């Protein structure tokens, strides 16, 4: 018997229990991924990858009361890996031909948005800290739990990220 089969036998109703916990959190998960990645298709991919990883690791969750922090950590780590892969591969813009449909309706407004551009220039770790603090409205300790780092590291990342954001916004203002 394989390990996955053994886990299913040991925990009847595993799929249903996971669905009950994850169902109401899907919209928030997509929003978090979208804010971290800044692109709808990448956010959808990251959510799917995180859901699969969470479902696979579900039997190892020790405290179901900590499900939110546990799943957020999986999702944030998945998004950070997406950002790292994006930085390593060359980006090619699609031509402006009318035959190519623009599937990401928010892309143009985000790219024009000064804060969105500034967030995009942050390192994946700094971006995750900023999004978890100001979009997800989490405390430093909650962010530390989700990122798997000490609270002091989160405070440091926020400090440097906000300094970088201020510099980007100041540069943008003087460029106008």
Give the secondary structure arrangement, pairings included.
Blueprint: H1 3-10, H2 14-22, H3 26-37, H4 40-57, H5 67-88, H6 107-112, H7 114-120, H8 124-134, H9 140-147, H10 151-175
Helix pairs in contact: 3-4, 3-5, 4-5, 5-9, 7-10, 8-10, 9-10
What does this structure look like?
The structure is a single chain. This protein has 176 residues and is mainly alpha-helical. It has one domain: Orthogonal Bundle (Arc Repressor Mutant, subunit A). The protein has ten helices and no strands. It has helices spanning 3-10, 14-22, 26-37, 40-57, 67-88, 107-112, 114-120, 124-134, 140-147, 151-175. Helix 3 (26-37) packs across helix 4, helix 3 (26-37) packs parallel to helix 5 (67-88) and helix 8 (124-134) packs across helix 10 (151-175). 24% of the residues are buried. Residues 1-9 have low confidence and may be disordered.
CATH superfamily: Winged helix-like DNA-binding domain superfamily/Winged helix DNA-binding domain
Number of domains: 1
For the secondary structure, the number of strands is 0
- Helices and strands, in order, run as HHHHHHHHHH
| Main beta-sheet strand count, sense and barrel state | none
CATH class: Mainly Alpha
Q: How would you sum up the global shape?
A: globular
CATH architecture: Orthogonal Bundle
Number of helices: 10
Q: Give the percentage of residues in beta strands.
A: under 5%
**Radius of gyration from the alpha-carbon trace, in angstroms:** 19 Å
Write the CATH fold name: Arc Repressor Mutant, subunit A
């Amino acid at each position: 018997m394989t390990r996955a089969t053994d886990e299913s036998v040991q925990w009847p109703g595993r799929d249903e229990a996971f669905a009950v916990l994850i169902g109401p959190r899907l919209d928030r998960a997509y929003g978090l991924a979208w804010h971290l990645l800044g692109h709808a298709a990448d956010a959808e991919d990251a959510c799917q990858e995180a859901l699969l990883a969470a479902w696979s690791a579900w039997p190892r969750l020790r405290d179901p009361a900590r499900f939110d922090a546990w799943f957020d950590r999986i999702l944030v780590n998945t998004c950070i890996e997406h950002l790292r892969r994006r930085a390593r591969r060359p980006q090619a813009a699609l031509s402006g031909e009318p035959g190519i449909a623009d599937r990401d309706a928010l892309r143009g407004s985000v790219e024009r948005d000064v804060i969105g551009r500034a967030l995009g220039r942050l390192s994946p770790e700094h971006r995750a800290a900023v999004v978890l603090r100001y979009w997800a409205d989490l405390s430093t300790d909650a962010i530390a739990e989700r990122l798997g780092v000490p609270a002091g590291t989160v405070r440091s990342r926020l400090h440097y990220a906000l300094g970088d954001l201020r510099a980007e916004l100041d540069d943008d203002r003087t460029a106008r």
